[in-house]
């Protein structure tokens, strides 16, 4: 076998509550920002399709977990919906949610699949958003209470916990470059939200440690590695700034225990520092995770700005760089993003050399394709492009492991085609095709291929 992976490698998939569960009348779930936005900002979703139409995991979890077993997954990540468990975010617990998550966890375990459970995947309860969401420091404590409750209810069986998925995104997409509710565009507010998310993470980690339970606590980071157009001083500086604002700003507090000094200096100069309280820095400095998930989809290519942004305009990090469209780049045209598997090796080396070779795994990687039904032959999507994508990414990951990076697994986004935050069901990512009209699932060719990879713990002729 050309690419054989370490013993006990995690082969799995990832999804999230809002993107997969769906809602059922009388389920006791409270509204979150996505339920609200789906109803009030329909035009922001592809085809006007909101999250209530997510792929019915709430009612089909048993069959879906059986399917996961059939393709051999040994681990499966999803999230708990905060507003399903605690409808107003900080009050009474919804017993139906407790029963549902218990059933999911028990079923995964019965099938020999390790549940990886994340606490926050972009889904602020609406009642707390009305109080300011993560802009309001009180919500940090509400999150810590929610985390503690999850550990008490499910921590006897769940051994792998994650506090946040892509913690930069709720700040960036909600408050800077508006794609998520509340659709704000204000760097200072985004910085405040980000700081409170960092604190919420720290408090949830502390609550886990205090629980004294066996298991690991981690975080799932979204990494978009930055590449400069050239080796010129100006392009290198542009890349440094993009990396500082969009990667190091969150990776360093979460993984190294402090914000980058250069970032704080710039934010002070442009008068955009968030409000902090005594003790915040110590809390961040004293928090460490056991495990890191890395979501990787695409690189970011930048160059020095050719058209300066007016300094009198509201501050945005793009003041220091602009996107570089590299000639000949390989694109996934459905999503309009570059395909660059080599970056997975580069990320793995950063995990090894910058982040102390902390144990990590690929927690998301995948390819969203539009109109996949065009590749259907005899009822099966022949997604050879997805197999090629997997092969390429896994081969770079394999090399990185051989070169000493402490990677423990690979989770594909996603299992059954699920709802996306803006694109709804436009681009499909799953190993299983979802027929939206009937909710039927059918295995794609890539799912069959992944099964063979798991069976052999690797792939390729030697
Ligand atoms: O759907 C998202 C997921 O929620 C977070 N990471 C990227 C995925 C694909 O766009």
Give a short overview.
Helices cover 39% and strands 17% of the residues. The protein has 462 residues and is of the alpha/beta class. The chain has a single domain (3-459), classed as Glycosidases (TIM Barrel, Alpha-Beta Barrel), CATH 3.20.20.80.
Secondary structure blueprint with pairings:
Elements: E1 3-4, E2 10-14, H1 17-20, H2 33-40, H3 57-70, E3 75-79, H4 82-85, H5 95-110, E4 114-120, H6 126-129, H7 138-154, E5 160-165, H8 168-175, H9 187-211, E6 216-222, E7 226-228, H10 233-256, H11 261-269, H12 280-285, E8 291-295, E9 300-303, E10 322-323, E11 331-332, E12 337-338, H13 342-353, E13 360-364, E14 369-370, E15 376-377, E16 380-381, H14 384-402, E17 407-412, E18 427-428, E19 432-434, E20 441-443, H15 445-456, E21 458-459
Parallel strand pairs: 2-3, 2-17, 3-4, 4-5, 5-6, 6-8, 7-9, 8-13, 13-17
Antiparallel strand pairs: 1-21, 9-10, 11-12, 14-18, 15-16, 19-20
The chain binds 5-hydroxymethyl-3,4-dihydroxypiperidine.
Walk me through the structure.
- The termini are close together.
- The protein contains 15 helices and 21 strands.
- It has a single domain (3-459), classed as Alpha-Beta Barrel (TIM Barrel), CATH 3.20.20.
- It has helices at 17-20, 33-40, 57-70, 82-85, 95-110, 126-129, 138-154, 168-175, 187-211, 233-256, 261-269, 280-285, 342-353, 384-402, 445-456; strands spanning 3-4, 10-14, 75-79, 114-120, 160-165, 216-222, 226-228, 291-295, 300-303, 322-323, 331-332, 337-338, 360-364, 369-370, 376-377, 380-381, 407-412, 427-428, 432-434, 441-443, 458-459.
- A hairpin with a 2-residue loop joins strand 15 and strand 16.
- The radius of gyration is 21 Å and the shape is globular.
- The chain is 39% helix and 17% strand.
- The model has no long low-confidence stretch (mean pLDDT 98).
- The chain is an alpha/beta fold.
- The strands form seven sheets. An eight-stranded parallel barrel has the order 2-3-4-5-6-8-13-17, surrounded by four helices. A three-stranded mixed sheet has the order 7-9-10, with helices on one face.
- Residues 16, 19, 166, 295, 364, 413, 420 line the site of 5-hydroxymethyl-3,4-dihydroxypiperidine.
């Amino acid at each position: 076998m050309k690419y054989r992976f370490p013993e006990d490698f995690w082969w799995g998939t990832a999804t999230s509550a809002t993107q997969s569960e769906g809602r059922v009348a009388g389920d006791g779930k409270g509204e979150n920002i996505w339920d609200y936005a789906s109803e009030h900002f329909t035009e922001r979703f592809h085809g006007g399709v909101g999250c209530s139409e997510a792929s019915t995991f709430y009612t089909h979890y048993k069959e879906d977990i059986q399917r996961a077993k059939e393709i051999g997954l040994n681990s499966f990540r999803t999230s708990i919906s905060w507003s399903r468990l605690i409808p107003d975010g900080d009050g009474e617990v919804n017993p139906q949610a407790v029963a549902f998550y218990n059933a999911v966890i028990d079923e995964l375990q019965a099938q020999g699949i390790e549940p990886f459970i994340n606490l926050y995947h972009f889904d602020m309860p609406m009642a707390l958003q009305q109080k300011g969401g993560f802009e309001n420091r009180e919500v940090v404590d509400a999150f810590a209470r929610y985390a503690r409750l999850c550990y008490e209810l499910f921590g006897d069986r769940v051994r792998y916990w994650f506090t946040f998925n892509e913690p930069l995104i709720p700040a960036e997409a909600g408050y800077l470059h508006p794609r998520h509710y509340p659709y704000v565009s204000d760097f200072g507010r985004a910085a405040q939200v980000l700081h409170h998310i960092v604190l919420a993470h720290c408090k949830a980690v502390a609550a886990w440690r205090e629980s004294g339970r066996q298991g690991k606590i981690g975080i799932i980071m979204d990494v978009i590695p930055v590449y400069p157009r050239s080796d010129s001083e100006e392009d290198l500086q542009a890349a440094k700034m993009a990396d500082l604002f969009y990667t190091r700003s969150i990776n360093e507090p979460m993984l190294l225990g402090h914000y980058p000094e250069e970032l704080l200096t710039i934010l002070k100069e442009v008068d955009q520092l968030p409000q902090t309280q005594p003790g915040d820095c110590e809390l961040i400095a004293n928090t460490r995770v056991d495990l890191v998930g890395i979501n990787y989809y695409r690189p970011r290519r930048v160059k020095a700005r050719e058209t300066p942004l007016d300094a009198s305009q509201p501050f945005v990090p793009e003041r220091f760089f602009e996107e570089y469209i590299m000639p000949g780049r390989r694109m996934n045209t459905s999503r309009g993003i570059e395909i660059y598997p080599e970056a997975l090796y580069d990320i793995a080396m950063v995990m090894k050399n910058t982040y102390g070779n902390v144990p990590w795994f690929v927690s998301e990687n995948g390819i969203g394709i539009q109109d996949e039904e065009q590749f259907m032959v005899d009822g099966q999507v022949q997604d050879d492009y997805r197999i090629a994508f997997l092969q390429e990414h896994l081969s770079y990951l394999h090399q990185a492991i051989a070169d000493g990076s402490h990677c423990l697994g690979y989770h594909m986004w996603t299992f059954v085609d699920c709802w996306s935050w803006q694109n709804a069901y436009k681009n499909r990512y799953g190993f299983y095709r979802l027929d939206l009209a009937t909710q039927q699932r059918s295995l794609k060719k890539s799912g069959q291929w992944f099964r063979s990879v798991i069976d052999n713990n690797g792939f390729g002729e030697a």
